[in-house]
Amino acid sequence: MDYFDLHCDTAYECYFKNKDFLKNDLAVSAEKGGCFEKWSQVFAVWIRDDLEEPYKLYREILNGFKNKLSGAPDNLTPYFAVEGGAVIGRDSDRLYGLKEDGVIYLTLTWNGENRLAGGSKTDKGLTRFGREVIKKLNCLKMCCDLSHLNDKSFFAAADEAEYPIASHSNSRSVCGVSRNLTDEQLKLIGKRNGLIGLCFYNGFLGGNTYDKIYENIEHMLYMGLEDSIAVGS
Length: 233
Prior knowledge:
The protein is α/β, with parallel strands linked by helices. The chain has one domain (2-167): TIM Barrel (Alpha-Beta Barrel), CATH 3.20.20. The chain has helices at 10-16, 54-68, 94-100, 128-139, 151-160, 183-191, 202-205, 209-222, and strands at residues 2-5, 38-46, 76-83, 103-107, 143-145, 164-165, 196-198, 229-231. A six-stranded parallel beta sheet has the order 1-2-3-4-5-6. A two-stranded parallel sheet has the order 7-8. Helix 1 (10-16) links the parallel strand 1 (2-5) and strand 2. The longest helix has 15 residues, at 54-68.
């Protein structure tokens, strides 16, 4: 089976828990991925909003994880992302460095707020700096990840982004938490040819994991989003 996953926290976990990638007790490892014929995995570097030197930490996590990828099986094609726009500080030109590092998307916020926008636990909207960042993402042909945004920031960011995705979000109709997306938001991403990565975290599924994954898929298929459904485990 071929497998493409839009999101995992393995790079961050390996760094802070001092784990090896080839074999570990985390959700994702080279050993566990050996069951796939072809395996494409996006490794997201999570950057909190309150760090004093977020870009420095990003570089340490990414470079360390790239070293851990040496010796990874041939079936794996790794991609990279950053979860948290705080990584660039006040300098949007740092996006050029992210692009050179192989980063394919930037998640604007986590659950809180930063200089770009507001996450799902805040009511802050997209800022002027956030709009500047999205315009540069567009120029660099990098995806703007709308997962974690509150509704106000989501719609404002979606209006600006040429390549919108939701790397790890489910349907709010299936599980009514603010981290999930409304039908209107799901349709908007589908209309813009974006991907929606289904998240396997139980708190965003709202019940029996397998049944709720199927329910999310069925709901999105009913909405005509068969070309947008992806995995963001």
